[in-house]
Amino acid sequence: MRYQSMSSQAKGRYLAEHPHCMLCPGAAVVVDHDHATGLVRGALCRRCNATLGSLEAALRLPERGFQTLAGDLHRALRRDAMITVGGFRRELDYLGLSEADYLARLRRVHDRLVVPYVYWAGVTATPLGRRTEWTKSGPLPDEAEAERLLARLLTRPAPPPHRWVALAWEPDDRVNSPVPRGLITHHATEGAGDAHRALRGVIDMSPHEAKCRDFVELAVPVLLSRELTPEEIRAAHGGSVARLPRSRDALRGLIGTQYGAKWLDLAVRIAVDDLRTEPADPRWATFGKARWNWRELLRHWQAQGPR
Prior knowledge:
This protein is of the alpha+beta class. Helix content is 45%, strand content 12%.
């Protein structure tokens, strides 16, 4: 079955037929496919889908920078020369790769990242992004020269007063990139973050902090609104719970105050189930849509009053 030929209805039917993630006890919300062949491989939860995508991304040169996990693997390889990916055995089995095969392919990509460049940009009110205008130096002769330039940019008291600085290892393909690409390590002068927030005129929370706040305010009340089964608790907590909670307070403590994707999956399913007697709302007509619009869904659930 080709992913590109599947309609949204077909994807919904596939997920209904395959409700469980193929890599963990969580609920499947994504139809996974091989990006090289376009063929559907299975159904995954968001976390496993993201992990799998990063593991695959590490095996090809990126147009810009590596995804987080992919970059971490290449940074570890550059730092330690030898790494292990045994912790991803389930994902590698799913991809049909042995650990040795994966590491060999990873190293082939890594061995092409041989040319160091250093980029820098002045801190402004605009966050780093595609519109950032970088100045760069390179190709530099070796890592030592790149590190010396990096140190000068981070410590020399010259205008602009604060800088974003990036060290990038790029392939030797003669591409004159205006932005960092390849294996990137980001740095900043001391106080750059505070300066950026001051320029914006607001000391605001990070996207992750905002997500954690909304999770606590919106999802946790839903999770505490009914008695959860041991299976639901184990799946939402990642499969390992030393002692099942016996009270609301104990369950509240287990859930914690950090955003939890699997706990949120469960909260969304509970809310959709509670609202099933209402006229259908297209924003949560399927689990995938409900998960995407989780804030609106859970606010609507709260507005309906206690259950």
